[in-house]
Amino acid sequence: MMETNFFDTKIEFLKGVGPQKGDLLKTELGIFTFGDLLQHYPFRYEDRSRFYRISELREDLPGAQVKGRLRQLEVIGEGPKTRLIGQFSDGTGSMELVWFQGISYVQKSLFRDREYILYGKPTSFQGRFQMTHPEMEPLTPENERGGYWQPVYNLTEKLRRRFIDSRTISRWQRQILELAGRQIRETLPDSLMEKYRLATKLQALWGIHVPGNEQHIHQAKRRLKFEELFYNQLRLIKQKILRKTEYPGQVFGRAQLIRTFYDEHLPFDLTGAQKRVIREIFEDMRSGKQMNRLLQGDVGSGKTIVAFICMLLAIDNGAQACLMAPTEILSDQHFQGLSVFAEMLGLRMGRLTGSTPKKERKILHEGLLDGSIQIVVGTHALLEDIVQFQNLGLVIIDEQHRFGVAQRAKLWQKNETVFPHVLVMTATPIPRTLAMTLYGDLDLSQIDELPPGRKPIVTRWKSDQHRLEVFGFVRQELAKGRQAYIVYPLIEESEKLDFKDLMDGYESVQRAFPEYQISIVHGKMPAKDKDYEMQRFLKQETMIMVATTVIEVGVNVPNASVMVIESAERFGLSQLHQLRGRVGRGADQSYCILMTGLKLSTETRMRMKVMAETNDGFVIADTDLRLRGPGDMAGTQQSGVVDLLLADLSKDAEVLKAARESAMQILEEDPELVLPKNQPIHNQLLHLRENESNWARIS
Ligand code: ADP
Ligand code: MG
């Protein structure tokens, strides 16, 4: 048993917290212990180091601290327009203070002609400065000198109502830090601290919660980010090493089936990049160690055929393969595409999605269990416990960013004797930093070449006013026998409105193109109807497809060469890129037209510009990360891997690189972390693991 750690002390035992506030901290912020509170880092700071004179105020200040006297306080207006107005002056000028809420409370707690220190955002109104809902406290000998930076913490309305604000939190932080004193263990080895000139853990915690100046904040953040990324990488790399040394994999040596496929059925020559990644994957599948590989390749780069060839290797050696896709449409398309090949080779292939009828399921379950079905293609439904294999040898996960790591693990366990080889395929190019943290435990293969004869898609950005012109262009393309997609956003929060937009859009498309058959596909349709419409479009029975983003991933209709994206401003960059990837799959010149309104934010303009300028998925992914931050990038929320508290993958690439290199070096020299100099790492890993199991118990 480890002795109770100081940091595991329950938060209610902190002086001033107590059981009631303690409960609130637990339910509102998930803070249970002293350690949890210390890890509740501020997200910004307010400069309380100096006082501004009223005459010095500027509108561009994010906030300003002012010392002065409250001259007047009166309630103005009636009903919902009631507000409390104060006049505040400091000898250099005066300004107005305004409260719309909590008026009676504020009125009771403030006194005319007293001196206060206040902090707020200065705005100018009719030539005079104003502060709305400023923070105010009476001037005292302690606070009259200023000289500190106030951390601002994430809080909830409920906490604020109980008077727990950022100042309260930082007071508690200080109390814990004072109590902790020397108990704060160093978690990084000396060598790293020296090499990167990092602050100690103790300095960093003081610096982040109780900074005296900007330099403290900067040093503290640098140190804590490094630590965070270092342990993130250390664990991923450790995991990777462990798999390579501990987990055996089936050895797939025979490749007769593949030879037959190459010689007799393959409809085109593989690109150099496809051949290279197949070699890399085969090497893993023959190594006797379990494969965990990420296959990256932009939309249209030809990942599906690579996946199929890898399946053949498993099957030729008596094992089964499964392919999991994130949507029903996509999995059906894989199924249909691959069943042509499977048939040629005399293989049995099954499909399993949420809408597979019971009877069919039963047949499938039996076939997988007795080994008579060699390939199964499906959705999440594959994860269900009832799906058992005779010998699952290869798991392929398409468009991984939609799946979580836990789901990856679930598929592993479908073979209890030897874990199956795992190949994860992503079409969204992922910025390097994100890839390192999301997939840092996987080996990487990259298809960096498109099949020959593809013409880069021409992308244009047009405002709504040009719709007639755009439809005219679409008509020209249709006249050449091409097909077109017209895509509408469907975003859950305003589903009803979006749905109306889609239907209105559908009607206007019908009116504009009376001579053409039109398909419509959206998420609310039963899978079978969606499928029916997709098939009609694929067979060129319909020439225009009006759709929501359900067509985003994977769907392949080579004759479709025009894509119009309505309300393009409502899509993220990666999503736009994915959508655009639906065209440009045949030999014809393809076009993507982004339609937007006129009033757009700078960020949106940037997005449209990047789309119009480049087809390079990596440039797009990097821009996306820069514009939105990793929290909003497709898939990172569900992934559960990137739960970084401080580090920002869009800004901290350098720190991440240093952290990853350090972790690799250390593990190379001392894989078990037994050397005395690595003792702090060993201890910290134990501590992290213990914390995790605590969490598992709580949640
Ligand atoms: P993605 O990587 O986006 O999944 P797909 O596997 O769907 O791409 O391939 C896109 C299209 O390119 C398909 O129609 C496929 O048959 C075709 N394709 C794949 N590889 C080649 C190749 N080497 N030569 C020509 N066409 C190819
Ligand atoms: Mg694909």
TrEMBL record:
InterPro entries: ATP-dep_DNA_helicase_RecG, DEAD/DEAH_box_helicase_dom, Helicase_ATP-bd, Helicase_C-like, NA-bd_OB-fold, P-loop_NTPase, RecG/Mfd, RecG_dom3_C. It is an enzyme of class 5 (isomerase). GO terms for molecular function: 3'-5' DNA helicase activity; ATP binding; ATP hydrolysis activity; DNA binding. The keyword Acetylation does not apply. It catalyses: Couples ATP hydrolysis with the unwinding of duplex DNA by translocating in the 3'-5' direction; ATP + H2O = ADP + phosphate + H(+). Keywords: ATP-binding, DNA damage, DNA recombination, DNA repair, DNA-binding, Helicase, Hydrolase, Isomerase, Nucleotide-binding. GO terms for biological process: DNA recombination; DNA repair. Residues 473-631 form the Helicase C-terminal domain. Its EC number is 5.6.2.4. Residues 284-447 form the Helicase ATP-binding domain. Transmembrane segments: none annotated. Pfam families: DEAD, Helicase_C, RecG_dom3_C, RecG_wedge. It comes from the Bacteria. PROSITE patterns: HELICASE_ATP_BIND_1 (PS51192), HELICASE_CTER (PS51194). Belongs to the helicase family. RecG subfamily. Plays a critical role in recombination and DNA repair. Helps process Holliday junction intermediates to mature products by catalyzing branch migration. Has replication fork regression activity, unwinds stalled or blocked replication forks to make a HJ that can be resolved. Has a DNA unwinding activity characteristic of a DNA helicase with 3'-5' polarity. This is ATP-dependent DNA helicase RecG. It comes from Siphonobacter aquaeclarae. The lineage of its organism: Bacteria, Pseudomonadati, Bacteroidota, Cytophagia, Cytophagales.
